């Protein structure tokens, strides 16, 4: 190819045409030489590898973003569970205090009932004595 090119340039020079001018305007000029084709092929291959790597990186980044969002949702759910646990614990403690107060009141009522029953027995005995003394 180089020999053909050199021969063409010599012929053009004999006819007074600049080789550089002919290379710019001629439809017959070679578009690229072999070294450029190899360079472009290597560049295309390297670009393809780079593009593939970039696409893989982008997918991994998207996966990390999704996982991060999932972790945030899990963290929020755990916080809600903790809040509910605290509410349940507080309600259970309040119920325990109420049950204790009910138990205390029940014991007080029992004691008062015993006192009223004792008073009723004493009153009944007093009435019986009073009724016997009239006889």
List the helices and strands and how they pair.
Blueprint: H1 2-14, H2 19-25, H3 34-134
Considering the chains and any ligands shown, give keywords for the structure.
135 residues, 3 helices, mainly alpha
Task: Walk me through what this model shows.
This protein is mainly α and 135 residues long. Helices cover 90% and strands 0% of the residues. It is built from 3 helices and no strands. It has helices spanning 2-14, 19-25, 34-134. The longest helix is centred in the middle third of the chain and has 101 residues, at 34-134. The mean pLDDT is 80.
Secondary-structure-derived class: mainly alpha
Radius of gyration: 53 Å
Considering DSSP H and I runs of 4 or more, what fraction of the residues is helical? over 70%
Count the strands? 0
- Overall pLDDT confidence: 80
The helix/strand order is HHH
Low-confidence stretches: none
Q: Quick one: overall form?
A: rod-shaped
> Termini, distance in Å?
158 Å
Percent of residues in β-strands? under 5%
